[in-house]
Design a protein that fits this description.
There is one protein chain. By secondary structure, the chain is α+β, with helices and mostly antiparallel strands. The protein has a domain at 20-60. It is 16% helix and 24% strand. It has helices spanning 84-98, 103-108, 139-147, and strands at residues 3-6, 12-15, 27-28, 33-34, 65-69, 72-78, 112-114, 130-133, 151-154, 164-168, 175-179. The strands form four sheets. The protein has a four-stranded antiparallel β-sheet. A three-stranded mixed β-sheet has the order 7-8-9. A hairpin with a 5-residue loop joins strand 1 and strand 2 (12-15). The two termini are 22 Å apart.
Length: 191
């Protein structure tokens, strides 16, 4: 899950309190219990970049995000979704900062992500050249991706991304909220 909050003074919070699914975490036979869903992102083999070691900061996919302008928070955003979180957030940021989209337009635009890296979670599967796309990208774009060697998986029209965001305009005091309509689980509310 993920939540973003902004108050009338522009104070912002972005939180992703996720990761309580023990049923999908691998059991360590020698210990008789499973790793937490976040601890399974470490490797138990020596030499890997994420090898579990004392004093080492663990890797995580949780990336609640604040965007500042002139040292003032103006956007809080985030998403649940494992390895896709940063990818979906990057799309949002590029669409709003570079493309000029409104927060809701950025969330509603067709989404995609790569599966061309080893997954963070057990069993760490991956698809070299893999790309998962919403069909709304269009046949021409999808064909172009395939022509460039990507192994494209079509996910449907409204299947990817779980972004939410709040925006504060320090100059006007206007607050905005946007949420993902995919999966009927995202909400934007104000009072």
């Amino acid at each position: 899950c993920h939540i973003d909050v902004v108050d009338q003074w522009g104070n912002m919070v972005s939180a992703t309190p996720s990761g309580g699914w023990l049923q999908s975490s691998p059991t360590i036979p020698e210990l008789g219990f499973c790793l937490g869903s976040r601890l399974q992102m470490t490797w138990l083999e020596d030499g890997a970049p994420s090898t579990l070691r004392p004093g080492k900061r663990p890797r995580t996919t949780l990336t609640p995000t604040l965007i500042l302008k002139d040292s003032v928070p103006v956007v809080a955003l985030g998403s649940p979704g494992g390895d896709q979180q940063d990818q979906w957030q990057l799309l949002y940021i590029l669409r709003t900062v570079v493309g000029g989209y409104s927060p809701q337009q950025a969330i509603d635009a067709p989404s995609l992500h790569t599966t061309s890296i080893p997954g963070s979670f057990f069993p760490r599967t991956w698809e070299p050249g893999g790309a998962v796309v919403e069909d709304r990208l269009g046949d021409d774009v999808i064909s172009d991706l395939e022509g460039r060697g990507h192994v494209v998986t079509r996910a449907g029209d409204w299947a990817l991304g779980r972004i939410s965001s709040v925006v504060s305009d320090p100059a006007t005091g206007v607050l905005k909220a946007a949420a993902n309509p995919r999966g009927a689980q995202g909400y934007a509310a104000g009072r």
